[in-house]
């Protein structure tokens, strides 16, 4: 038994359940998705004997030639260009403000975290009320309001979704930065103050370098989360509208694989998305590490 568990049997015993969980929830579904993407796979009745021939890269060729799929990857690229920088900047600024001795600090910390733990379905209705053609935002803007309105405008639908996701997830990333700010020595701020540095210079030269590891984590998490966008465009724009302007790869994967009954095509989209996210995350990590 000891030879099976290794030199640290207690540690191995605690790790094994999580390894089994990862294998069952992540590794097996991903491997099965890769298998389906290389076969002519379809749903069949339980117990039915069916042939699912190997088709090579035919499904990937069909996916890459599909305009809706290509547009969905472009849409998620627009989403990430808006969401990731906004997430990093706003969460760092708000975390820095909430880390200082201000009145009602605990109240504000909880307030920013509430949207993150609230179900998307519960808050989508508020945003639909705010951004519809007769909503509060258009009433405030008056003649400056866009026509067509935000969520039915092909150019503004995805940016509006990006703003919603940024607002909803901001509390989680603020907590990450708050934890990182606890490790920035106060002596550095005192030294900067003695050298005559203003608050802006202290923030730029002390805070930003001090939380750089957290920034790397925030960028990676925001990218991975954003690339798996599904719930928000599904609820806010009625399934990726208008005319696919807010459709994401995961949404297209759901429509092709589940609604239209083509799990092999949906799996091919999913595998391409996994590869794209891994490459993007690796590139971001290399760039951030080079800057540090």
From TrEMBL:
Q: What residue stretch is flagged as signal peptide?
A: none
Cite the Gene3D superfamilies for this sequence: MetI-like
Instruction: Name where it mostly resides.
Output: membrane
Q: Its membrane topology, per UniProt?
A: Multi-pass membrane protein
Q: Which UniProt keywords apply?
A: Cell membrane, Membrane, Sugar transport, Transmembrane, Transmembrane helix, Transport
The Gene Ontology biological process terms listed for this entry are: transmembrane transport
**Stretches that traverse the bilayer:** 12-36, 76-98, 110-130, 156-181, 202-224, 265-283
The record's subcellular locations are:
Cell membrane
Q: Which family does it belong to?
A: Belongs to the binding-protein-dependent transport system permease family.
Q: Which PANTHER family match?
A: ABC TRANSPORTER PERMEASE PROTEIN (PTHR30193), DIACETYLCHITOBIOSE UPTAKE SYSTEM PERMEASE PROTEIN NGCF (PTHR30193:SF41)
Q: What is this protein called?
A: Multiple sugar transport system permease protein
Upper lineage? Bacteria, Bacillati, Actinomycetota, Actinomycetes, Propionibacteriales
């Amino acid at each position: 038994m000891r030879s099976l568990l290794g030199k640290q049997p207690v540690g191995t015993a605690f790790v094994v359940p999580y390894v089994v969980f990862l294998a069952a929830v992540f590794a097996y579904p991903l491997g099965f998705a890769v298998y389906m993407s290389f076969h002519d796979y379809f749903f069949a009745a339980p117990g039915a004997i069916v042939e699912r021939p190997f088709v090579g890269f035919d499904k990937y060729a069909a996916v890459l030639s599909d305009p809706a799929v290509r547009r969905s990857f472009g849409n998620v690229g627009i989403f990430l260009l808006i969401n990731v920088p906004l997430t990093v900047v706003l969460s760092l600024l708000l975390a820095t403000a909430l880390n200082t001795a201000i009145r009602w600090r605990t109240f504000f910390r909880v307030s920013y975290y509430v949207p993150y733990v609230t179900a998307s379905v519960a808050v989508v209705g508020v945003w639909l009320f705010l951004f519809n053609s007769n909503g509060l935002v258009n009433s405030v803007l008056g003649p400056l309001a866009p026509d067509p309105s935000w969520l039915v405008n092909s150019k503004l639908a995805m940016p509006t979704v990006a703003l919603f996701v940024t607002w909803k997830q901001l509390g989680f990333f603020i907590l990450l930065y708050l934890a990182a700010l606890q490790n920035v020595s106060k002596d550095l701020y005192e030294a900067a103050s003695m050298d005559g540095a203003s608050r802006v210079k202290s923030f730029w030269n002390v805070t930003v370098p001090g939380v750089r590891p957290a920034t790397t984590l925030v960028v990676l998490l925001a990218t991975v989360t954003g690339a798996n966008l599904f719930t928000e465009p599904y609820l806010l724009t009625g399934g990726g509208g208008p005319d696919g302007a807010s459709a994401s790869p995961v949404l297209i994967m759901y429509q092709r694989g589940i609604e239209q009954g083509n799990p092999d095509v949906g799996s091919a989209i999913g595998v391409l998305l996994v590869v794209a996210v891994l490459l993007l995350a690796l590139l971001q990590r290399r760039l951030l590490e080079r800057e540090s």
